[in-house]
Amino acid sequence: MQKKLKISFNSPIILGFTVICFAAYLLDAITKGMTNDLIFSVYRSSLLKPFTYVRLIGHVFGHANWDHFLGNIMMILVIGPLLEEKYGSSNMLFVILATAIVTGLAHMLLFPHVQLLGASGIVFALILLSSFTSIREGSIPLTFILITVIYIGGQIYNGLFVTDNISNLTHILGGFVGSGLGYVMNKNKMNRY
Predict the structure, then answer these.
(1) Is 103:170 a contact under the CB 8 Å cutoff?
(2) How many C-beta atoms surround the C-beta of residue 161 within 10 A?
(3) Pseudo-torsion of CA 30, 33, 35, 41, nearest 10°?
(4) What confidence category does residue 190 fall into, taking pLDDT thresholds of 50, 70 and 90?
(5) Is domain 12-192 classified as CATH 1.20.1540.10?
(6) Mean pLDDT across the stretch 171-185?
(7) Backbone region of residue 138 per phi and psi (left: phi > 0; alpha: psi in -120 to 50; beta: other values)
(8) What are the structural domain ranges in the chain?
(9) DSSP label of 3
């Protein structure tokens, strides 16, 4: 007798994040940009307005267009489930929320008249976090050094010399959040053994 194959819900945080991003994309298309302006992008606004706090996290769900959405979500779906399996769902949720808040606050403070949206900060957090998956006590993985130099160095270069609509600071901050949390989570894991 042959067993039936079933689809498993293997990565609830990453899959949930993907579904929310897709719903945000559809809502934005239906409302002709209103939901991105109201919920799914961050910009400086009064701290007395409740939507300021919603946007502080909501900006990572919004995307400007289909290519923007696909570029971020494909990377998240490739890297995220492996990291969620290694670090657990609650830690993945924390990485996403921490990255959203750090990048949102930095953007509000440094770029008051520009809207930021998209999950690229999350992508960079996951990329740098992934380089910590094989860390051992007393050593820094060569992959971490290479990824840091290539990704973060590239973002610094682009930020200084390339004029485009890409928030290089968001990528850099996302990378720092991912690497910092990767270091802490792996150190805590090693201390338990």
Answers:
(1) yes
(2) 7
(3) 140
(4) low
(5) yes
(6) 88
(7) left
(8) 12-192
(9) P
